[in-house]
Amino acid sequence: MSVSAAGATTPDRTAATARPDPDSGPAPAPAARPEDPDHRGQVVLRISGLGVSYPRRGVRGGAVPVLAGVDLEVTGGRILGVIGETGSGKTTLARAVVGAAPVTAGRIEVEGAPVGALRGRALREHRRSGRVQYMFQDPLRSLDPDLTVTELVSEPLAVAAVDRRERRARAAEALHRVGLDPAALGDRIPAQLSGGQRQRVSLARAIVTRPALLLADEPVSALDASNRNHVLRLLDALRRDLGVAIVVISHDLGSLAGVADRIAVLYRGRLVEQGPTAQVLTHPL
Predict the structure, then answer these.
(1) In a domain, 155, yes or no
(2) How many domains is the chain built from?
(3) Which of 221, 213, 206, 214 is nearest to 253 (CA)?
(4) Looking at the domain assignment, is residue 160 inside a domain?
(5) Helix extents (H) in 2-143
(6) What gap in Å lies between CA 12 and CA 232, rounded to an integer?
(7) Taking a C-beta distance cutoff of 8 angstroms, is the pair 23, 184 a contact?
(8) What angle do CA 245, 251, 252 make, to 5 degrees?
(9) Which domain holds residue 84?
(10) pTM confidence score
(11) pLDDT in tens, 110-136
(12) Looking at residue 212, which CATH number applies to its domain?
C-alpha cells in the first residue's frame, strides 16, 4: 500500500521553540528541570500482536475485529506517526493504550509495565498517574466550557492530589511551554479563545503531568495552516526538550513529514507498513 505525500506541510525544525501567542506577550518556554523525568532512548510504548474487537450488536458471542496483529514501539524523545484512512483503526489503537478499547489479543506495555489488561482500580490508578496523556482532535468538545484556562490545565494534577500551589505553578509552566501567557489568558474560558489557542491549552493540559507518553489524535486536522504548523512545531520541541514519546494519529501523511521520526500505516485494522519517515515517503510499499 502506498501513501502519497502530496501537499506535504513540513514545519521548520529550526523554529521549533514555542513562539508566544500574539495576545499573550513574550513567553519563552522554560528549560527542563533536573527532576523532570527523561525517557530519551528508552522504549516507552511497546505493542505486540495487538488485537481489538467490539461486540456485535444483537449477536450473542459475535464480535467485530477492528485491529489484528499490530506490533509497534516508540522510544522517548521520538515521534511515531500513525497514518490510515477513516476506519483503519487509528483511534482504536490509541484508545486501547489508555484502556478505553476491548483488547482481545496481544500485549501493551508502557515503561515496561503491562497495561492492556488493567481493569477497575488498577486502571483508574494508571490513568490518574498521568504517565500517559491523550490529546483529542476537537478541544472545544474535550475542554470543560465552564473552567478557566488555568483550571483546565491544572485539573489533571488535582486528580493526582497535587497541592494547589504546585498545581498553579506547573500549569503556568506548561502554558509557557506552548507559547501562551498564563497572566493574560489564565482566567479565560474556552469560548474566549481562538481554535489554535484552545488546541495549545489541550497540549499544555497533556504535558502538565510530565507524561512518558503523549497520544495526539488528529491534533491539527481542525486548524488552519498557520496554527497547524505551530502545533506541529510545538510537538517537535516538546519531544526534544522533555524526552516524551509521542504518537501522532493522522489521515494526512503530509502533516507529519517534517516532525515524525517513523511512520506506521494502518489499513483495515492491520499494520501494512512501518519505517523511517523518509523511507515511507520515498519508497512506499
Answers:
(1) yes
(2) 1
(3) 221
(4) yes
(5) 90-97, 120-128, 139-142
(6) 9
(7) yes
(8) 90
(9) 23-282
(10) 0.84
(11) 999 888 888 888 888 888 888 999 998
(12) 3.40.50.300
